[in-house]
Write a structure and sequence with these properties.
The chain is mainly alpha-helical. Helix content is about 60%, strand content about 5%.
Length: about 250
Amino acid sequence: MEISEFVHQVDGFDGLAPKEKIKVCAWFLHVHKAMASFDNEAVRNCFKQLHLNSPDVSVYLPRMAVSKPPELLRERSRYRLARSVRSELDKKYGVHQSVIQVSRLLSDLPDKIPDMTERAFLREALSCYRAEAFRACVVMTWNLAFDHLLRWILADAQRIADFNAAIGRRFPRKTGLVVSSIEHFEELKEAETIDVCQNASLFSKNTTEILREKLKKRNMAAHPSQVTILQSQADDVVTDLVNNVVVALV
């Protein structure tokens, strides 16, 4: 995760006093950049990436270290947040480590995804996961992966020809259906699309099983029920679909 992305989670960041902005940057460096301590330049770089003028950190950091109680602990030319300040910020912005890992996985994808529609799905999934709206995350991640699958089929003339040839073999009642655009896929249920892909041997048996399993989880998440969608379930859906569909099918 980059600092520009993180500050969107910080309510009223632009209106914070310089010292409070420094604390936020310091917490970001500790948690999201795995820095045990930081120096003046690391803090300045955070402000630079945010396109903000940096406060005079050579003045602020020493003052924060000698305040009572100290807000920073000084180690020669480096600093780290005092425990009380770190704990307070953990409560505000902290998330489970696996949330951070999956968020990083998702946030690394935009550079690999040129299609703007897929990017929109990605942003939605990322927002849902961070908000611990795991049911919505499962639904949106499926949307991302399935949309990618359809566009991947259409992107290659041989793939779409093989897909169309397999429709009638797998579903005789749909003989005559020819898919040549995203809208045409509406004539097939999602499970039917996966079955046709399998019949056409467009990808491996493992990919087929992943899609079938995740479609079941999407259906469970999308419909009102007493079933609770846990973080671990969202982790599984996100990592499997991102790695084995969105990234793998190119």
